[in-house]
Amino acid sequence: MRLDKMLSECTSESRSAIKKLIRQGRVTVNGVRAASPEQKIDETRDEVAVDGGIVPYKPFIYLILNKPEGYVSATEDKSERTVLELVPDEYKGRQLFPAGRLDKYTTGLMIITNDGRFAHEALSPKSHVKKTYIVGLSEPPTEDDVRAFREGVYIEGGYLTKSAELEITGDYEARVTISEGRYHQIKKMFGARGNRVVKLKRISFGGLKLPDDLSEGEVRELTAEEKERIFC
Ligand code: URA
Question: Under CATH, which number does the domain 3-54 receive?
Answer without folding.
Answer: 3.10.290.10
